[in-house]
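cron nightly-structures :: item 1 of 1
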Amino acid sequence: MKHPIRTSGDSKGFGVLLAYYVVHALVAVLQWSPSDALELHLSTDQNSGLTVFNVSSGPRWSYAFDKKRSTLQAETLFYLNHFGEVSLARPPDCSKIVHNPFFVYINSRHSDSLGYANYTVLPLKIFIHGENCFIKFKRKNAVSSLLTSLMPNGLQQLDKSNTILISIQLKEQFGTCLPKDNSILSVFHYLPKSVSNCIINEAYVDSSQFYINLDTGYLRSTDVFCLNFSSSVVFIDLDVAICAEMPMETHIPIEVILYPEEFPKRISVVEDYISRILPRHRRLRRWVKNTPPSFEKSDFVENVPEEQNPGYSISTFTATDPDPGDAGRITYSLLATKDGRSQNMFGIDPSSGLLTITQRLDREQIPVHHFLVIAMDHGEPSLSGTASLTIYVNDINDHAPEFESAMYSQSISESISIGSTVLTVRANDEDSGSNAEVEYHILNQAGVNEAFRIDRRQGSILVRQQLDRERCEHYRLEIRATDKARSSERKNATAVVEITVLDENDNRPQFTRSSYMVEVSEDIDPTGSPVIAEIKAIDADAGANGLVRYSITSGNFLNKFSIDSRTGQLAVLQPLDFEKVQQYRLSIRAQDGGSPYKSNSTIVLIKVIDVNDNEPKFYTSLYQESVPENEPLGYTVMRVQAFDADSGLNSAVVYTLKHTTDDLPFEIDPTSGVLIISKQLDRETLSEYDFSVEARDQGTPPRSTMARIIVRVRDVNDNTPIFEPKVYHEIVSEESFPGTPVIAVTARDKDENARVTYTIVDGNINSAFRIDSQMGQGLIRVARMLNYQDQSRYILTVKASDGQLEDTAVVFINISDANTYRPIFQGIPYQVHVNEDKPVGSSIFKVYAVDNDVGENARITYHMDENDAFQIDPVTGEIVIKHSLDRELVSGYTIGVTAMDHGSPPQSDSADIEITIVDVNDNAPIFLEPEYSGRVEEDAFVGTSVLTIQAKDADSGLNGRIRYTFEGGSSGAGDFRLDPVLGILRVNKELDRERMDHYELIAYAVDRGTPEKSTSIIINIKVNDVNDNAPRFPAEVIDMYIAENSPVGSTVGTLGAVDPDEGVNAEIQYSILSTLDGDDFKLSHRPLDETAIITTATELDYEGERKEYLIMVRARSFHLFSDVKVKIHVQDTNDNSPELENFVIIFNNYKNHFPTSAIGRIPAFDPDEYDKLRYSFVSGNQANIMHLNPSTGMIHLDPRLNSDVPMNATLQVRVDGK
């Protein structure tokens, strides 16, 4: 019968040994116990290159590993330099360490000595602690392998010794005796440097011949000391106080071997050494029954504030163990179970169970730590009890809010409405709870900054007052973000927000003068375009909105003038002529570069100054007249008249007769030009006079002209002059200048050489007209300026007389109205707003001008500057749409309109009509990108900015104001949110890449028109992985099966963990933890499919003591890991033959008691558990006196044996196993 092997103290049949961690402020911790060597405790988290121990004894010493005695893994794990410094050659990896703990022996030799003179052997017991480590506390056999070899030149340290060996060759010869109180050596000089600074409380020497001076460390003789065999080995026990290098008070055993300069019997020394050390190592405790420690509860929860100093006490854990002595003495340790980083952050006192902090904690780095608290006794074997520990790190306000940017900048339009959001600042606080809640304030809100306010919770900066760029263009706000911790602990951060107000075209150009008056001499030379005036307008806007351009919109007849569009300099382009145009009335427009643009107009009145550039002109170059010779003195012969187109003195004419003789019987009035008889005529003396008359103006210099006068003297005639016709009609303009001919009347006189003179005898009101008699005609001229309003019609009676006889005629003269007044537009300035969707042909406005003249002079025709969009009815002034409008192409028009009368010459007025195209919501927002993509870490804080989407809307006002929303789209189930004003996409919930690694969000840009128009956009967000998931096995316990007798290295099975992370964060390393069965199996990693193969490292026998093995496999991804129990079941194979020994059946037949049932069973046994045995008789049962069940082996007697006849038989039975 087989019995399962059980380990005492564990109800499940297995003793669970867990890795034992020691956490200390020093990276490597030394300690000594009476049964162990110097202990060096290391952690798997330590990096290569770290110095863990210093064996230096001073200068001129050399150091080397004792390869024969040290564990094989020592040289691969440690590096020993020539200074005696032991450092890590690589980070410890418990999966590659066969024994834990293990021994390392270091030999030290002084350079002045040979062999083993001045030679030490230092044993170090190495403990490796970490997540993959399992420390086996096994009893040690002190008497095993005490001496491994004897070197030719001296003695080497024993493999299993825990004692420091110091071999000293003295200068004295063998047999020499040293005096009392002689200093032999200083033990302190031979101690390793790592412990040389510790204080020695007490030193025990097992020989009465020696003692140690605690001040100097010298071994001194108590009496005369002779060098012989019995005195060559000295045992010293040093009681070392607690120091920085050694965390607890301990003892250091030292063996000092002294031998003289020439000493041939080294073997005797060794034998003496063995005889002295063996008794101490044989003091072994007797094993007693041991029970494991236990905690009062299985789960503990602790809370600790973050940022506490190392050494901060959290709690004390106490386990109970009823065992006496060392079996009941408990050592406590911690094991991080979820995050390997936790291991170095906490420590537990191995004796008291006091849990303390070893590093400052940061809740923002690891908020929760998970541990297994291990209570391990010192029994044989050592047993343990565990409890889970969860430590929550409580937040303190150790983080100030941090703005996403130290400087924000935003540009906004000055027309932005009150209450609009300018931008949103965001400060994140890595704390939690109220410590992470942030409020925002504007620090410098006084003065111009009162135009803004901030939402204290959201951080949105809003417009508080109407902005005016012309008043303030730049704002600099200092924003403070303050957390809501207790008032005494609050932290804050500041950021600067620079706001630039963009100009809107809200100002018209303003002329520096309301009107301009310019006088220009008509003889100005237009060559080179001389500047006659500078028109200046100022626009308070900025940029293109404030850039003023000048143009002449009306009054520039024949393009006499030009204006520089940039400077406003008005120049003459063509010659001026006062005699044609005395003044110009120019309409100047100043227009800015905004959209829509704004303009203003002013009037420039240009007066042309007359110069004497015209000489007087006679109406005819030859004047002829006949005069009766009997006309009296003073008789008016004729009147000559010259007209000078100049004005003023330049047009004042003085008449003088030229080319005359002294007896000329005529004189001329110098002012009127009337030629009279100054001497009595005598036809018989001279019948014809031929002379000249000069007309000279009063200009400087004066100008003159000549005309010829012929006066014929005739006889008196007797025929009456007769008008033909008797009635005349004429129209004359009231603007006619004096001297202007109106009409000529003619009277015929049949007399020879009849001389007819004409006079106005009636109807000449206010002497408005005069008549000149010349060449037989009476030429009626304007005598003075006429006025239509005063007198619009004259009826003149004109008399024709030859001196004696006369006749009359009636002349009707109608005065036509002069074009005195120019048309004047009413209701200016004209500003019209037209919706861009208004149909073609629609009337948008009607201009109206008034002319105070009458008739044709008051009849007005309207004209409009050439443009593509509008046209004007020339009669009514109604403006209609000519082509469809589009505000997004042209946002406004400034068009000049002209009202012109039908006078002669015509007069006009000009005005600008500003037509603003009013936006209608005919454009949907357009995103600047066809699609947006971004990345975000899965551990990003709520509120983290991911990207910014941006759309433009060609409309204006509310139609062009855009808000961003997920309404009607997809926000990733609320994982993201959009800033409605700025389009910033932020994290709205905690993300988990393992839940959702990619988002395809659908956002909308919606304008605020009526009805609203919107455009959708796809936003692809990739969630970047962080290592926040430990690998997970498919089950807490995995069962595997393997047939017995499988060769060593056979595959037991494949297991794999799944890490929901990706990339390097999902790479998994597998290892077998050091458990009771951990050395019986090996594990290899298959990187292609991230699985591990478990293979055997020992022979398996189902019929042996073990049918089942339990190992712990760890899957690690960086600092995160998970463990799984793997139960390996050994399956039976048919590797054993059935066993059957000879046996005897004795049957006693009693009357009436013959058995009819089975009398027994073939006593065969097969060690294979599942083999099926088949039974059969081979020989001896030919008579079939016994019946055998081939399956069960049960035997029945044949009824024929029911008799009183004795019978003996020998049968051969066969048993087969399958």
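cron nightly-structures :: done
Residues 248 and 837 are 94 Å apart (CA to CA).
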